[in-house]
Design goal:
Blueprint lengths: L34 H15 L7 E5 L5 H14 L5 E7 L6 H12 L1 H4 L5 H14 L3 E7 L7 H14 L4 E8 L4 H4 L2 H7 L2 E5 L4 H15 L7 H14 L3 H17 L7 H22 L2 H16 L7 E2 L2 E2 L1 E2 H14 L7 H13 L3 E5 L9 E5 L3 H17 L10
Parallel strand pairs: 1-4, 1-5, 2-3, 3-4
Antiparallel strand pairs: 6-7, 8-10, 9-10
This protein binds adenosine-5'-triphosphate (ATP) and magnesium ion.
The site of magnesium ion has 3 residues, from α2.
Amino acid sequence: MNDEPFAGIFKESNIFAQRDVLSPHYIPEHLLFRDAQINEIVKAVTPTLRGERGRNLFIYGKTGTGKTSCIKHVIAKIKELSEVRARISYINCRIYNSRYRVLNKITSDHMPLYAKRGYGIIDIYERIINWIEEDGKILIVVLDEIDSVKDLDDLIYTLSRANSDIKSGGVAIVGISNNVGFKEDLDPRSRSTLYEKELVFPPYNSTELSTILKERSERGFKKERIDAAALNLAAAIAANESGDARLALMIISKAGEIAEAKGAEKVTQDFVREASKEAEDEMAYQLVNTLPEHQKLIVYAIALLSLQGSRYKKLTEGSDTYIFSGEVYSKYSGISESMHREPKSSRWYRKYITDLEMQGLIQTYESGKGIRGHTKLIKLAYPPEKIKSTIEKALFKDNEGGEGGAVQDR
Ligand SMILES: Nc1ncnc2c1ncn2[C@@H]1O[C@H](COP(=O)(O)OP(=O)(O)OP(=O)(O)O)[C@@H](O)[C@H]1O
Ligand SMILES: [Mg+2]
């Protein structure tokens, strides 16, 4: 009976109890295996609660290791305390990705009436300074995904400069990133400001992920709807891949959806296997979307060349297309120029290739002595058609977007 198209949308799920508990945006009440890290964060911010500036903190860890969850957990605890001189701004720098936007977000968090008026950067800066000095506040600025800030050196300079301009009170920075190469790219002065204290979040192992999944699935799934073996498999896959709790959660929640769509009674290992393939692909496309512009263009060049096939046919075997690094660089340069971008130097290019390989988007290997002597060969780790269309969507959207798109680089 299909004459009622929306019949069934409120139908109770046979598999899920609370689907949102399995979502990556959900912040669990208890963060398992992170007591040490939470204590370190608390230790770093404790002086600020007493009105001292304390030391800036830098948090590093691969994706899905619980950085955002832990910091939000600590912020929530601090907000419960009364009579604390510290004020906190949590800022997702993927969205607030420039000095201006960050300072504006601070004013809108704490001085909402002022923020609406669209002042220039100097006015905003002075307003923040005055607000801090009113009663000697400490402002804790949490910059999550800090590597997304385009003029980060300026932002760090401005925030630390505030400390010398302020007569009473202060500013403390907590920076968070999952980008390995980020530290090396920073201006040495910003680096020493930001890295007064450093905290590393290690990837989760398979046992830890199993426990996290078990706790989450007790509320996410209906009783007896997911096998312990299925949970363990999802944990093992995610641990083997990257130790990423988000991936592990994504796998079991997708497995649940597959089971539900098939009208199965239980989420089994087979559904987990199917889901893990889908989840990995999805993560890759998300990753591509968040790459900086020139890395996107490089991946785009690799995808295009993979689709055309290398000029050196011997390197193309079945679906495995390896491409010469030099070919990629000239394709990338051509694309950049046609988009009115200055291509990065070949030194930068090589660094980007290393980054992309570390992120698992490409594989490379050195060819032996051959037609062109020693050279690097590159292969895309995901289907080129899908990568190509993902990047085209992202670039197209930015070009349309006018203000603030990735196009406006430094
Ligand atoms: N220790 C933990 N216990 C329970 N759930 C966790 C734990 N760590 C992470 N998670 C879950 O994993 C998901 C990802 O965690 P989170 O967003 O904190 O990672 P992250 O380190 O900030 O990653 P990214 O670098 O990608 O921003 C969230 O859904 C979170 O609830
Ligand atoms: Mg995060």
